[in-house]
Automatic annotation (TrEMBL):
Residues 124-330 form the GH18 domain. It comes from Pectinatus haikarae. This is GH18 domain-containing protein. It comes from the Bacteria. InterPro entries: Chitinase_insertion_sf, GH, Glyco_hydro18_cat.
Amino acid sequence: MKYYPKITKLAVGFALSLILLFSAYTAWCSTRPMPESPAENSAWLVYWDMPKDPNKLPSKKYDSISYFAAYFSDEDQLTLPDDFDSAVLLNNDIPRRYLTIVNDVVSHNKNSLKSITLVKRTLDGNMKKIIYADKIIALAQKNGFNGIDLDYEQIFKDKYTAEEYIHFIKILYDKAYAQNIKLRVILEPSVKFAAYNFPRGPQYVVMMYNLYGLHSGPGPKADFAFIEQTSNSMKALPGPVGAAFSAGGCLWGSNGEKRFISSDQAEMLAQKHQTNTKRDEKSGALFFSYKDESINYTVWFADKKTIAEWSKKAGEMGINAISLWRLGDDE
């Protein structure tokens, strides 16, 4: 029975080694540098507006551009649009190139946008979270991206799925950090930020738009009170944080028609129907009304001055990282 003490000593030594290793890992996690939140300008480029010529990308105007978007097949496989050409991004002097991942399912039979069930399936258990984190990073690296936008929407309507998603954010951030890849997490303004334990590390960008839109009657995509209220609620997020604003606007008809339009389209409508635009003091947005045949139309939209005023208001609230939705829509 002389081997018992040796086994005990080995077991104790092994346990101590694990404790030291865990302590070292914990210390590294708590002391590693966190991303700063400097003033920066970013914008999304959607695949249906992807230019063929890299010189047409306004890289000097933006610190980073996010390519929208990678989505899922009906077999839960991450995919990019067939005509995506990474050379357009790689041959440009954009400092940071983000790949935006959305929880959309695109199939030959039926598309499912902002799918909660997709998130439940792909993040079911730690192993799947790790697998999909690796897949996202591999897809980004393969196509020349050095940043990732995680833009999963509607999932905070389901608290269990939201908690699983937040756990996934931590896993993805740790893996992306090890590969020197930036991570931004895009959040809806309706999310109760204080109700969740969001991990430190990623930049959290909140969509400060759609205050009015297809879901409502006429009004601006954002106003100053909305920006202030959202900015205050964002104090519960672990920095760095950013705000996303949307160019263009929306048209409402008395016949029930509702559709998004660009500011160029809005100005053309105003000229065509010989009506003057007015600027709203509470939002900085422009608006006008006109009649076409028997239908009354109202239009609200944001121009460059509106975006500048919204950005200034966000800056007053301590948010200096601004993203624009989207290039090709009144950049």
